[in-house]
From TrEMBL:
One of its GO terms (biological process) is carbohydrate transport. GO terms for molecular function: carbohydrate:proton symporter activity. This is Sugar transporter. Belongs to the major facilitator superfamily. Sugar transporter (TC 2.A.1.1) family. The chain crosses the membrane at residues 12-33, 53-73, 85-102, 144-164, 176-195, 270-291, 303-320, 327-349, 377-400, 412-430, 442-461. The keyword Transmembrane applies. GO terms for cellular component: membrane. It is found in: Membrane. Its main location: membrane. Coiled coil: none annotated.
Length: 518
């Protein structure tokens, strides 16, 4: 961080991940800083019952800022490092949160959320890059998934803070809730200076000795001669030399088959948004009110969804590196499609029109019949989140972090995140008006998109699970196998470690022989 004193460095990768993924918690805090508040009387009164395009603008302001943040994240991260770019982003969070707390109208609220989004754009793209670059290949998924868990814990904690603050009179209600967003940012800024820099970034900028030392501390308790460290370093150097020959500029994202990786990294993030789960995550309070749930019952019902989200992503944390990425993406998209079709079909067949808005909320213009129809809508909304938590929510971030080469990873991941945020912004603007204008048909549209996503995943995404970042190069090369013929595991690194061990044994025997001669 440019400080004179030398701080102790943490090399336990899970502890490193927990600190780094506080960047994800910021994202989660900002999502549900609106979820619990948009239906409160204090918010509706103070901001003059914002609805349709205005509520769309407030909801999607975070994504708008995130598009800009993720656009600059790659070049920034390549210049100052993964860790320091995350630290830099935190200052914009402090400013944006201050603006939200002090806002006098929805224009200032939008401005504050845009600034917070700038931070989220950088952290959401660079935390996965950082974690992917320090993790062992066979543990990479479980490490990167901690980012998704942090997002979900942030959503849950902030939602219930907002729910608790709803009992406070007047504007102090939402100002208090938004002010609490300072806390995770403070802890992130305190923890970051104690984290190691990415060994692959250190290698990229020519700091080889530091890179080897960090790699050894993470992988082998500081033993630079450990066969795993030697094998992985040799892979990093080989790939890095090849990438230097590939040249600079934007051509490297399409040259020599790189277009396949660029397409995979950007589209997997687009599909995560187009699958429609965030409609449920952001606006389950609306769906609950459509289903006839009001007041505290509606708020708690929505909050339980976030707890379900965490539980099932936690389950997947245990199995993410034992299950193929392709399998989870394809079947996850099909499962989500089924849930969307059920929710949309039941709403379409069993509803009454309420032109003036359910409970006075102008965003909710249909009411689902009570009893079995309403219960089915809530149940399948929950099931959709369960499927999403087990599949696309974590796997899209993991896959996007894995597909890039060393020379393109930081900027590539920022392009992938930018794709995510562009579609997040578009859907954020589209969803509130869609609730008003096409109501239940919104879910049918998302169901069709999920089926399309499943076909896309099957046709274009090779399996990356259990492979080193360097050998993923081969999967996307011209001589690589067809995506549907790839399998998880089969890592070359194990064979290379054995080769290093054999080489060291031969070198040792030669040394002994030479010594005996003397």
């Amino acid at each position: 961080m440019g400080l004179g004193l030398k701080l102790p460095t943490i090399y336990n990768v899970h502890l490193v991940a927990i600190i780094a993924t506080l960047g994800g918690a910021l994202f989660g805090f900002d999502i549900s800083s609106m979820s619990a508040i948009v239906v409160t009387d204090q918010y509706l009164t103070y901001f003059n019952n914002p609805h349709d395009i205005i509520q769309g603008a407030i909801g999607s302001a975070l994504a708008a800022g995130s598009v800009v943040g993720s656009a600059i994240a790659g070049p920034l991260s390549d210049k100052i490092g993964r860790r320091d770019s995350i630290f830099f982003a935190c200052f914009f969070w402090l400013i944006g949160t201050s603006v939200q707390v002090a806002c006098k109208n929805y224009g200032q609220l939008i401005a504050g959320r845009v600034l917070n989004g700038f931070t989220v754009g950088i952290t959401s793209s660079q935390v996965p890059v950082y974690l992917a670059e320090i993790a062992k290949a066979e543990k990479r998924g479980s490490l990167v998934i901690i980012q998704q868990l942090a997002i979900e814990f942030g959503i849950l904690i902030m939602y219930f803070i907002g729910y608790g603050c709803a009992s406070i009179e007047g504007p102090a209600s939402f100002r208090t809730a938004w002010g609490i967003q300072f806390i995770p940012c403070f802890f992130l800024m305190v923890g970051l200076p104690f984290l190691p820099r990415s060994p692959r970034w250190l290698a990229k900028v020519g700091r080889d000795q530091e890179a080897i030392a960090v790699l050894a501390n993470i992988q082998a308790d500081g033993n630079v001669d450990d066969p795993r460290v030697v094998a992985e370093w040799e892979e990093i150097v080989t790939v890095m030399n090849a990438e230097r020959e590939a040249g600079k500029g934007w051509r490297k994202f399409v040259k020599n088959g790189m277009w396949k990786r660029t397409m995979a990294g950007m589209t997997v993030q687009a599909w995560q948004q187009l699958a429609g789960a965030n409609v449920i995550v952001y606006y389950l309070t609306y769906i609950a009110q459509m289903a006839g749930l009001t007041g505290n019952v509606a708020m708690v019902t929505s909050g339980i969804q976030y707890a379900v989200f965490i539980i099932f992503t936690g389950v997947m944390w245990l199995f993410i590196d034992k299950t193929g990425r392709r399998t989870l993406l394809v079947y996850g998209a099909l499962g989500m499609a089924f849930c969307h079709f059920v929710v949309g079909g039941v709403m379409g067949a069993h509803h009454d029109n309420v032109p003036d808005g359910v409970g006075g909320n102008a965003n909710i213009v249909i009411s689902v019949h009570k009893g079995a129809p309403a219960n089915t809508v809530i149940l399948f909304s929950y099931l959709l989140i369960v499927v999403y938590a087990l599949t696309l929510a974590p796997v899209c971030w993991i896959y996007a972090a894995e597909v890039w080469s060393l020379g393109t990873r930081a900027t590539g991941m920022s392009m992938a995140a930018m794709s995510n945020w562009v579609f997040n912004f578009a859907l954020g603007m589209f969803t509130p008006p869609a609730f008003v204008n096409i109501t239940w048909k919104l879910f049918i549209i998302f169901g069709v998109l999920c089926v399309t996503a499943a076909v896309w995943f099957w046709l274009f995404y090779p399996e990356t699970c259990g492979k080193t970042l360097e050998e993923i190069e081969i999967l996307f090369g011209d001589q690589g196998p067809k995506p549907w013929k790839t399998k998880k595991g089969e890592s070359r690194l194990t064979a290379e470690i054995e080769a290093v061990k054999a080489r060291k044994t031969v070198e040792h025997e030669i040394e002994v022989h030479e010594h005996e001669k003397v």
